[in-house]
Amino acid sequence: MAHHPQHHASTGGIAKPQTQAIWKTFWILLGITALEFIIAFTMKSGPLRVAIFVGMTLVKAFYIVAEFMHLKGEVKFLIWSILIPLVFVIWLLIALIVEGGAIDQVR
Description:
Blueprint (H helix, E strand, L loop, with lengths): L18 H24 L4 H22 L7 H31 L1
């Protein structure tokens, strides 16, 4: 029995691979990561460096979510329902770090 590719009437055939979009995503993420490495080896350690790393990591995370979880074309309500809790989680982490540092000052 010969194997023939299935053609679906509803889609008009087999979908083309999205290799161009995947490579575009790869190059963008590689570029951001390369910038992170440059900053890691050229900037002195400090709060500005940490802020830049956190910012670039968030940019990469949002880009990955938009591309691979297909949220880029979703309804704005769905995007906000994901982003608003994320803001509160980030606020919680910052508050915990700040308060955790305050314990050392009490001693």
